[in-house]
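Help: why these numbers?

___
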Amino acid sequence: MVARTLFNLVLLLTACQVHAAPRRGLIIHSFSLKTPWVKEIERGLKEELGRVKEPITWKSISLSDSSVAEIRRALAQEKPSLVILNDDQVCRDFMPELMAQKMPTFFTGVVDPTPGYLKPDYKKFQTGVFETLNFLPVLSVIKLLGTPIKKIAIVGGASYASTLVSAQARAQIKEFDPTISVEVVHTNDFSEWKKEIKRLSPTVQVLIPLLPFEVTECGKTVPWAEFNRVIRAEVKIPTIGIAGVKGPIERLAANAIDPAMMGRQTAMLVQRYLGGEPM
């Protein structure tokens, strides 16, 4: 009788394991899920997360489409066992409270190398991928080709992330050659973005169009193809693009960041954690 009871208990536990609800994961972005940048991050994440053997149901939400309060409600309702934060803004807004809950949290697309929300005390519960620009090799090639660089223009969006990235770019330019002057323009309006591109192009030797995924026209996200069309039509100088925005190859275009790759690298960290490795 005891043996049968134990056997039935084992069967019951096994059935519960088989039919247990999958774990939930929440992906929180700073920018709209409709932007090409976020789509690429998501593509990289989902491609790699699809290889995870443990069943996890993932839901994506963004600070552009939801308020901080709405995202907090989503965290309470979804009760995720894992969270992925994409970009400095959402890390700054949500990391402290997630760490207070001891929530396993993975960050990606973080530009600031020394943010206040990444603390030694949090190491047990957080890990992730920094977004690092590397313009120095491209600038070196431009110089080797005989193009004198006296002025570089950086044209980007006006978000917190964009200001961080432009600061990173300026630091690398100063390291490359402190005599180069840099003009920076931040705007989230595509018509203004086009005007600045046209105005700056004749006076600079190198153009860096930063983070255009946050730039809109009439309230709508501007496709990367449209940025590329404007750059090809208006820019006759070397262009160092970010992700999908770049000039023609003959103008020495270069991609400083691959968002899909960042997504895949972050998902690999999730895989390792689920496999038993510490954060």
